[in-house]
Amino acid sequence: MLIRKAFKYKLEPIVEQEIMLNKTAGCCRFVYNYFLKLNIDQYAKDKTFVFNHQMVNMLPELKKEYPFLTEVFSQSLQTAVRNLGAAFKKFFNKQSAFPTFKKKGKQDSFTCPQKFRIEEERDRIFIPKVGEVKYRNSRPIEGEVKSITISKNCGKWYVSILTEQEIQEQPKTFNNPIGIDVGLKEFAVLSTGEIISNPRFYRNLEEKLTKEQRKLSRKEKFSNNWQKQLAKIQKIHSKIANARKDFLHKLSTQIVNNHDIIGVEDLCVQGMVKNRHLAKSIADAGWGMFVNFLEYKCLWQSKTLQKVERFYPSSQLCSECGSKQIMPLHLRTYLCKDCGTTIDRDFNASKNIELRALKLAFV
Question: How many helices and strands in the chain, by DSSP H and E?
Answer without folding.
Answer: 10, 14
